[in-house]
Amino acid sequence: MTRAATSVMRYARFFTLVGVRRVLDYGAGLLRNSIYLSEQGFQVYAADLPEQIKALSLHPGAARLAGLLSVRELPQTELGVDLVLSTYVFNIIATREKRGPYLENVVRNLKPGGFFLIEVNRSSDETPCTSVLRHYPECDGRGKSYCSDDLDRLLVSLNWQDLSLLQ
Predict the structure, then answer these.
(1) Mean pLDDT, the chain, as a whole number?
(2) pTM, rounded to two decimals
(3) Measured between alpha carbons, how far is 80 from 33 in angstroms, rounded to an integer?
(4) What 3-state class would DSSP assign to 53?
(5) Peptide bond into 112 cis (omega under 30)
(6) Which of 35-44, 65-74, 148-157 has the lowest mean pLDDT?
(7) What per-residue string of b and e applies to 67-87 under the rule 16 or more CB within 10 Å gives b?
């Protein structure tokens, strides 16, 4: 089985210490992060495209999860999770029209005061980061396919109360 994302392994202990229990792995792929977190004691819901969820239902690790959800179900759910995890998913959402509902589903299913761990691919373009948010590890100033400023603007448009990130 493939290893969990480095960011997920790095922050798992932090999330345990601050009381995170319920997690939505939004764009679960092959369940690498979902299974890792369930083995760490988290209650994990995995969400992905309907055809991927159908395939994942046969995965031996799926039985350890709190649930498998089609992304089509997320607009009607309010899971109230402590953490929404999105690793390397936001990059592949092709249009602005699809990115909006994706982020709205994050907000709908995340409890107030919850955490949103989003990871995006790096781009080869050099773009200075001017985000007002604090980054961990410190921002290296290199652009990403979505720079921190872009993500800040997207989240502010959804009326997030607190956009501070881990330092």
Answers:
(1) 79
(2) 0.76
(3) 19
(4) helix
(5) no
(6) 148-157
(7) ebbebeebeebebebbbbbbb
